[in-house]
Amino acid sequence: MTIIEVPRKSNPPNARLPNTGKKPETSKENKQKVENIPLLPIIFICSVVTAWCLALLLNSFGIVGNDDWFDGSSQEVRIHPQHGTPRYRPQPHSEAPNDKYNHKIGGYEPFIAIEYGAFGSRVGASVDGVMKIFPVNGRLKTPNSVAYLDEGVLVGQDEMDLPFVNPKNIVYGMRSMMGRRFSTDQTLHRDTQYLPYEVINKEDKPFIRVVVNREDIILSPEQIQAEIFRQLKLAAQDYYSEEITHTIMTVPAYFTDDQRQAVKDSARLAGLEVLRLVNEPTAAAIGYDAQNQEYLNARDESFVLVFNTENADTDVTISSIEDGMFGILSTTRGEFTFDPPNRPAGESVDYRYDITSEQYQERSDKHIAEQLITTVQNALTAAKLQKGDLSILIMTGDESAIHEIQPFLETFFDGKTFLSGVSPDTAVLRGVVYQAEILSGDLDGDWVGAFDITSLTRGIETAGGLFQAIIPRNTLVPTRKSLNVTTIHDKQTKMMFNIYVGERAFVKDNTLLGSFELDYLEEGPAGQVVVEVVCELDTNARPEIRATELGRGNMAVWNAGEGFDERHMTEDLQKMLVDAERYREEEVVEMRRYDGKVADGDEFGIVVVPREEEVEQKRQQMWK
């Protein structure tokens, strides 16, 4: 919502100047000339100057953009359905008929793409093959802040725009709160205790308290963020002149399943259904057309580093590209400052030290390089790669910061340059718009990369009640992985497959998804019959398990079905992850006792057939 300041009406032509109480010191002739001066032209000129100054003032606050104010198009004020206060909404652009751009996607309305950034968000779409960004209140990038006033709600304004508003009612940073819990996230309390607005613990989740018309209002982060998503939606609707209900949206690669679901819930409150969530580094790489670089064709698998910086926050993501599919290997977050630390950590003493500007710049450069290299090196270590293994380097985010830090990174990578040709600030939005265009059917192409991750490991039960992982957590979907299993009894003609999700070593501590049997196996000694188990996840992370007897083709299939919703099985995701880490050492000891043993009543059990490389590795260890 935007509050529009209406210019004051000019004085009528017959208005008189205020009486000063002094008698004019003029002759009769001069007095007659003054009375005959026409006031209407003077009032008209003053009104024009006043309106011009008012327009510049509104534009400086971001309330009205230059194009919206001066292009002569009509403006419309609508009443916000919830708060009953005016919202500024420009009329659709008039350079061409609107129905020309009403591209449909499988019966959906016009399809939009949203870049959900840490500090600001943008909405765009592909128009005749060109990315178009829809401005909100004259801004191409809307700050992720919401101000709650007695008169209504202001979206996209910060403290600098609203100096006379209570800072406790200006709320921002919802992206870092959604989907988190106080009991399982140790850093959440630290992240929220120094904010200017009030954060409370409600049902183990962060909520925000604001005061409107002297009444306390408790809001969830999803409700607050929905105000911003609603404005992005309205901006696109103004362009297309019809209702929009579907979108593709970007999220950080490190987001958990709960955080991703919270983003979807927030968008749903704004009237948007999120069909796909795209990881920001993947969208950035697509925006640079990284998957189509010519030199990638010579390698089966290539590696891409995406360095993102925004407001001194940095994150480095390393992905693999194979057959046009992106897989995230590691994500590391960090911070950097341009100024080196110049205060001693000891007691305060009187000390003077003269330093030249060149010496200060040298210290500053060294300080920046150390911070950047540490973050990049941590990402390389987590991905188990060397800097020479990287094929593509990409930078996204704040262009002014990129200009300063890019030389340090290129030096670290031995002169290897970053991809260019695309604005780093819009690369993420460009990538997600490209994906939206493919989804809409307006562009012939294949899906590039995956758009969600598995929140928990998928696997099956093996002998002794052990949990055998097939697809680890944080794997990008869609995906397909397999392993081989064999019988544990002589003349065993049936196998029972119990599918679980979780991170614990024993199935009793994980969540059962379903079960199925493979019958009519060939009779033979234990370990002779080999069955391939394939676990496949679609774009919505719905699992399908296939068990096929090798050599005979005997097969059984289990799938979760259309109504599968993993959220109901992983509501306490953070607690499950904490417990897995807490009991890891104890479970390792217990696994050594039960590995390969048959539990009581395990008539149709299975054991995993080691892969050749695993057998060779164990053989080498024995020789050592």
UniProtKB/TrEMBL annotation:
It catalyses: ATP + H2O = ADP + phosphate + H(+). Keywords: ATP-binding, Chaperone, Membrane, Nucleotide-binding, Transmembrane, Transmembrane helix. PANTHER family: HEAT SHOCK PROTEIN 70KDA. Residues 22-31 have a biased composition (Basic and acidic residues). Residues 1-31 are annotated as: Disordered. Pfam families: HSP70 (PF00012). One of its GO terms (molecular function) is ATP-dependent protein folding chaperone. Coiled coil: none annotated. The lineage of its organism: Eukaryota, Fungi, Dikarya, Ascomycota, Pezizomycotina. It comes from the Eukaryota. This is non-chaperonin molecular chaperone ATPase. Belongs to the heat shock protein 70 family. The chain crosses the membrane at residues 37-58. Its EC number is 3.6.4.10. It comes from Rhynchosporium agropyri.
